[in-house]
Target: Fructoselysine-6-P-deglycase FrlB-like protein
Amino acid sequence: MTEKLPLRPVDPRIGEVIGGAVNQRGVAEKVAAAAAGRGVTDVFFLGCGGSWASSVPAHVTLSAHASGLISHNLNAAEFLAAPSPRLSERSLVVASSHSGNTPETVAAARLAKEAGAYVVSVATDADNALGELGDVTLTYGSERTITSAKHVLLGQLAQELLRLDGAALDFEAVRRGYEALPDVLARVTEEHEETAARIAREIGEADMTYVVGGGASYGLAFLMSVCYLTEMQWKKSAYVSTGDFFHGAFEMVVDDAPVILFRGEDASRAMADRVWAFLPRFTSRAYALDSAAFELPGVPAAARGEVSAPVLATLTTRLADHYESVTGHSLDERRYMHKMAY
Amino acid sequence: MTEKLPLRPVDPRIGEVIGGAVNQRGVAEKVAAAAAGRGVTDVFFLGCGGSWASSVPAHVTLSAHASGLISHNLNAAEFLAAPSPRLSERSLVVASSHSGNTPETVAAARLAKEAGAYVVSVATDADNALGELGDVTLTYGSERTITSAKHVLLGQLAQELLRLDGAALDFEAVRRGYEALPDVLARVTEEHEETAARIAREIGEADMTYVVGGGASYGLAFLMSVCYLTEMQWKKSAYVSTGDFFHGAFEMVVDDAPVILFRGEDASRAMADRVWAFLPRFTSRAYALDSAAFELPGVPAAARGEVSAPVLATLTTRLADHYESVTGHSLDERRYMHKMAY
Model:
């Protein structure tokens, strides 16, 4: 199979963008201090599509370790349709939208402000509706390195909230893990090139692709299936959590069915292991994106689970570039999105 | 198109099964009293696949109205991989599995018991591992009327918990709504026959089917897409929430793409309305299952939102019967499920 579009170069700014995210840890500390000051009980992550998905790791981490803070990760339209009675000045609302102007997310942030909540806006820059609404703003300034940057911004915020909650975690190791990421993510992108090219070559033109991920990687399964394959490649795809895989979707794994599995090093790894023990026996086209396959220099062992999500997000985003090259379908082409009101 | 398998008769026991579920309101009251006695703070709904999906309406209702109770709806394997630090004797755990023997759900219920939680088991009968573990058991005794029965059992439980929480709701109207359901669900099944037959005839053999549902109906989108189409019909399908529809999946709606939308009468209806305003303009094969199209005798207006889920579940289950008839693929056929350990 020949390339139908030239392969985009690796984002030359990846280290700079991730470094910029890491350097906003001070904002995360400020948010945690504000949360402590007002006795925050609930954290609401709000977004739509890929922005919802990018909050999954922080939500999963908070849910797994916080005893005094309740974490919610909600589609902004769902949040608006039935606002939680727990929304109050003791709520921390983290509203994410790449452009900062997604209508449902802006409306949700506005509702949260009116309820007295402390609002953190997350967008590529601060010059937009979310930026105006936020008590503070987290930004990443990129059109290409988005999900991994959000993982860093929200992951660091979750760490500061867990510190406030009194969780017994190795915060210092995780801090060093995040600080290593600017170099690490640039490096894993290069190390991944051959694998990404091979996956795109072998299943880029496939008819239907299943994507499986659990724990912090559930959002990556959504990102790959819904954002990259469905929205940006107009390909048939479905995603399923590793926990649900054996309760339905696995019935479709036969012959050469294309399946992509995310294997992070967080608490969900055993679930992914079960899926990986199954897949290659029943399909000739099973692929795993596995953070454990990479060295990650400077990331302490105790931080590998935490940084698996931005590592795997980096591999996923680059895999999408290779799909574009193989299929000839630009990742920027849309039928409806940003072209019509809804 | 001719029938490839005879159409199964409508479940003659539907009224009896739903009546049996309604009659377990006393168990729900007992659970709520126990929850009050131990000062329950968190409700964990646990299950896998369709059992997870069947808890969506109760979880959505609790999340929308409870200020003092936190509701979680989790895949049982995810729960086991990273148990919540909030799990304690002040937790109410509602573990659902049709057989009562799903390994992950049984293990999750056991973990909950060991943590001192009050455990409600939900299964077709009590003679199984979940039944042994539960402090109380909710059962429905059917191989055909499953999801709607679980909706009734868990919906009534959510009502009693909301009463305990002090929510300002019309509990009496909802009680009468549930009491009307045995007759109503038998009736809507018959009224739905022609539509169900037409949908199955027109898209039963389609290549890829999208299913859209939000709020309480999100679980029904999962049920239709993952359980019925993927697992039981081996068809390509993906599901998406109404809130996320315009953030990815709608790019695939073109020409004659088959899309099934759930329109309940709960707080999520406006989200479904947005999707329905879009669909018929861009595909010739858009279908809505809409509870508002049915009279529902005896259901007070104030209860229609609450009973939308079991009404739509009934339509969905019957639609699957019509698929089976059109495709000739038995709903009981499996490649792997119940045939291999994982």
